[in-house]
Amino acid sequence: MLFEKLTISKRFLRELDFPMLITVLIICVFGSLNIYSASHLSYGNQFLKSQIIWIIMGFVLIYSILLIDYSLIKSYAAIIYWFGVFLLVINCIPMFQYTVNGASSWIKIGRFTMQPSEFAKVGIILMLAKELDDMEGNINNLKNFFKLTMYAVIPMALIVSQPDMGMTMVCFFTVLGIFFISGLDLKVILGGMLGLTLVVAIAWKTTLIPYYQRMRIISLFNADKYQLSFALQLTQSKIGIGSGGIFGKGFLKGTQISGGYVPESHTDFIFSVVGEEWGLVGALSLIAFYGVVIYRSINIARESKDIFGSMVCVGIVSSMLFSIFQNVGMTIGLLPITGITLPFMSYGGSSILTAFISIALILNIGMRRKKINF
């Protein structure tokens, strides 16, 4: 049975990483405050209430997943993976597509919307981890490497077709992290990076990259020229973060945010709210909290009793690291704007539930770990 009982034994509870769980809760509370600040003037507490519901559901998910031995989750990895692919295929059907900011990466049925790529990302991690465990980590065997690559490419190709370049990048660097830590020959990794660069260069010379995505990159390096058009969001974000100074303007006192000058400030640009209202101290504190989660996740990966557990942790850490780096980078003008959310901070059901599932998997692996040398 999937759930043998509905309580977690004291033996496992003693191994549960409570510091990580508490840190996640702190980030969620901080995120909810910033979501309210970014949206209360236009929407009241609508987004705040929804986010709190998602957070409560997230902790219920954590508890539910902790009840299941993760070795049993491994046996369902293929089903989870192919279900994620199925959702991505459904997302290709026009009648179910819902387009946001140029990307048809949402499924809409009635009032219900979801982002399949978020859940497919978890499926990719579980599937690659399962296969690597079955292969006993022998990734440099040509047959094994080809098999793993195909499992990565299938959902990523469907995500590219949406086109959602942000999530494609997240999946790519997640897979890259798993391949690198599992011991893939460095020459193969460098060759893959070179090949990707070539593909991007060819796509840039053709019409494969949509105009709005192309302009996001161009405006990054010509912000002054496009500050009233393609770089407007970036320009206003930088003004807000810069005006926050060291200690910020205070909760609910951000003029850029309250004035509505930063679009999507409750979702993709939530870090702009942090920078303006909480200043450098608040921004660095948030990054420090993320650091705690990542550090403890890496320790669990190192101490996992099997390859599957280690690679699941590695995949989730890779995904989280890139998402944080990309999201923060785009709000301060270091990286192009994408639709990548900030884990546990940005508003959105698909995003936050996927983040909770990811943390639940890491906590599950940590709770049932036996230290081994590898």
Automatic annotation (TrEMBL):
Q: Which residues form a coiled coil?
A: none
> Pathway it belongs to?
Cell wall biogenesis; peptidoglycan biosynthesis
**MF-aspect GO terms:** lipid-linked peptidoglycan transporter activity; peptidoglycan glycosyltransferase activity
What are the annotated GO cellular component locations?
cell division site; plasma membrane
InterPro entries given for it? Answer: Cell_cycle_FtsW-rel_CS (IPR018365), FtsW/RodA (IPR001182), RodA/MrdB (IPR011923)
Which EC numbers characterise this protein's activity in its record? 2.4.99.28
A Gene Ontology biological process annotation? peptidoglycan biosynthetic process
Q: Membrane-spanning residues where?
A: 20-39, 51-73, 79-100, 167-186, 193-212, 278-295, 307-325, 345-365
Q: Does the keyword RNA-binding apply?
A: no
- Topology term for the membrane: Multi-pass membrane protein
Q: Which reaction does it catalyse?
A: [GlcNAc-(1->4)-Mur2Ac(oyl-L-Ala-gamma-D-Glu-L-Lys-D-Ala-D-Ala)](n)-di-trans,octa-cis-undecaprenyl diphosphate + beta-D-GlcNAc-(1->4)-Mur2Ac(oyl-L-Ala-gamma-D-Glu-L-Lys-D-Ala-D-Ala)-di-trans,octa-cis-undecaprenyl diphosphate = [GlcNAc-(1->4)-Mur2Ac(oyl-L-Ala-gamma-D-Glu-L-Lys-D-Ala-D-Ala)](n+1)-di-trans,octa-cis-undecaprenyl diphosphate + di-trans,octa-cis-undecaprenyl diphosphate + H(+)
Q: What is its main location?
A: membrane
Entry keyword set: Cell membrane, Cell shape, Cell wall biogenesis/degradation, Glycosyltransferase, Membrane, Peptidoglycan synthesis, Transferase, Transmembrane, Transmembrane helix
The record's subcellular location field reads: Cell membrane; Membrane
Q: Which HAMAP family match?
A: PGT_RodA
Per its database record, what is this protein's job?
A: Peptidoglycan polymerase that is essential for cell wall elongation.
What is stated as this protein's family in its record? Answer: Belongs to the SEDS family. MrdB/RodA subfamily.
**What PANTHER family does the record tag this protein with?**
CELL CYCLE PROTEIN, PEPTIDOGLYCAN GLYCOSYLTRANSFERASE MRDB
Can you name this protein? Peptidoglycan glycosyltransferase RodA
Q: Which organism is it from?
A: Clostridium kluyveri (strain ATCC 8527 / DSM 555 / NBRC 12016 / NCIMB 10680 / K1)
Its lineage reads: Bacteria, Bacillati, Bacillota, Clostridia, Eubacteriales
Gene name, Swiss-Prot/TrEMBL:
rodA
